[in-house]
Amino acid sequence: MKVRREGSNAKCLAYVAAFVVFQTAIILLFALTVMRIRSPKVRFGAVTVESFSTVNSSSPSFDMKLMAQVAVKNTNFGHFKYENSTVTILYGGMPVGEAAIFKGRARARQTKKFNINVDISSSRLSSNSNLGNDINAGVLPLSSQAKLKGKVHLMKVIKKKKSGEMSCTMGINLATRANKSHKFRSSTSSLYRFDGTADNCLAFSDNEAPWKELNSVQVSVNLSGK
After folding, report:
1. CATH number of the domain within which 82 lies
2. Domain hosting residue 146, numbered range
3. Shared-domain flag, residues 162 and 60
4. Do the strands 190-194 and 94-101 form a parallel or antiparallel pair, or are they unpaired?
5. Is the pTM of this model over 0.85?
6. Which of 64-68, 102-106, 187-191, 201-205 is predicted least confidently?
7. What is the pLDDT of residue 213?
């Protein structure tokens, strides 16, 4: 009888130990997946250049209209609420165009997409000695920057500040009105990778894939001016 009791107690202890291990594994899995809050990813989607014109004279200039889709990818299990922000287009490090990004929300495990229109003009430049040289060379180098600040809301209890940042460069071929090159550059807060077309122009945070430059971007061009 005593032997049976000892055997029964051993089984109970084994069951309790197995249950504790199982619960610990569930808690760890929950902490490493659901409770792990990541920075959102920001990208340019489809891009169209319209009403493009350049002048190469004693006072070189350019004007264009850029239409782009912006995507905010939220990989968290809670929604991401971001504040008003701005997409800035630069030439030679100086802003030549801006577009507003209005505050919004990217749902949990989803990507929010919206369109922006940017009027770009060299009239905003005070002076740039390289503009005439770039127009003569047939390639207009531009860069774009955007940063979305906000909070990730998890289970209506946890709120953590996060931001998604995008920074890239592109070269507009003046002969064909097409984008010659487009690549992402690393910054202090994020690393960037470009996967070949504007639809895959993704920004990665530091704890994800390393930065890698790949192929040139594909940008559609509308020469009708409509």
Report:
1. 2.60.40.10
2. 41-222
3. yes
4. unpaired
5. no
6. 187-191
7. 33
